Amino acid sequence: MNKVRIGLIGCGTVGAGVIKILKNQSVLFKKKFNTEFSIVKICDLNPHIAQKLKINKHLFTKKSDDVLNDTSIDVVIELIGGIHPAKEIILKALKAKKHVITANKAVIAKHGTELFKEAIKQKRNIYFESSVSAGVPVINAINEGLSGNTFNGLYGIINGTSNFILSEMTQSQCTFKEALANAQKKGYAESNPTLDINGMDAAHKLAILVRLSINKTIALSNIHVEGITHISHEDIENAKELGLIIKPLAIAKKINKSVELRVHPTLIDKDHPLASVNGVFNAIFLQTDPLGDILLYGQGAGQMAAASGVISDLINLSTKGKNVSRIRMKNISFEDKSIRIQKIGEVETHFYIRFMAIDKPGVLSKITGILGKHGISIESVNQKIRKKSSAVPVIVLTHKAKEKKLRLALEEITKLSVVKSKPVAIRMESLL
Ligand code: HSE
Predict the structure, then answer these.
(1) Is residue 201 lining ligand 1, measured as CB closer than 6 Å?
(2) Are residues 122 and 149 in the same domain?
(3) Which of the residues in the chain have pLDDT under 70?
(4) Annotated catalytic residue, options 41, 105, 205, 247
(5) Is the CB of 160 under 6 A from ligand 1?
(6) Shared-domain flag, residues 105 and 7
(7) Whether 151 and 294 share a structural domain
(8) Ligand 1: distance of its center to the CA of 301 in Å?
(9) Cα(7)–Cα(318) distance, rounded to whole angstroms?
(10) Does residue 322 share a domain with residue 221?
(11) 106, 99 in Cβ contact below 8 A?
């Protein structure tokens, strides 16, 4: 029987889920994988955790060094999240010749290169399936199942909280505030939900996916990030009328040797499979060669979803980790030096723009004139009727336009006295 001795650092929601699965499935894991997992030490600052989880209190400690210095431990599971002290804990664990499993997207996105290097040096593995889309096996799919493919495009709904909020706003007319409170109650949101709604959580995950699929190390500043806070019911309804839906997408689009990296609410066709990914569900749509398009779909946040990913890392480690560690870590560290990152100003997309303008002769021509002056070609214009209001919504859909040209045009249009508020611009992607 293969024995894996575990040290758990951080025993909050996900940690409790991991303990639950290890307890409930121990017989199955012994039979199926010939492996016995035992948790030898748990580090957490909450003094009530042992009682809450009904676990022997002697397993608990408040000092991470008690776990890191225990020579009987094979693998450290880091579930405290954030950068510090998670990074130091992971480095210490590797130096102490322990494998590491983490669900920490921030630390892998920011310090992955350094951590992978240390793992190679120590001949140990870092597994991080739950860092992206919880238990949906996207990391494993890219590293193993799709390893014979090149990746040309990645369109991911990879933040459960923002997808939950936009879905609630679309389907049940919920306000943004109500939907966020609900996501927090269900345990989907980060302890600081700002990272979910401002797009940074998805940016961390995108950086990890790009490292593995397009083989490029990404600084977070290379990603153009926009959150979902400016999305209103009005734009959601307008999108519906156009046969579109707004989804919080993380995008990596490879065109020849350059890659566009962006996280923003995006209008997509209501018939694309990503359009029906609702609630906390995540989906990653990959354009690969030679396989073609593939969609990975599943619950991307929540206690048991995240715990499931950690368990799959444990099983991977126990069944093949020790022998393949150097090869695996070298594969995931591979860098394609020929890829360059496209500046956001140069990116070309279709846009939906909503202007709030005075309803009088000549207004439309002023707006469209400025767009034309900046070389932005219009696909359609629709002025909506609105009673008892001094300004009316004018919806413009553009053909593909360069971002920097569009920004200049919007700046100029905003200054027009007939335009009453800052225009709302949402990028559109045609994926069908
Ligand atoms: N807060 C994250 C989300 C949890 O909403 O997707 C999973 O990383």
Answers:
(1) yes
(2) no
(3) 321-326, 387-389
(4) 205
(5) yes
(6) yes
(7) yes
(8) 5
(9) 15
(10) no
(11) no
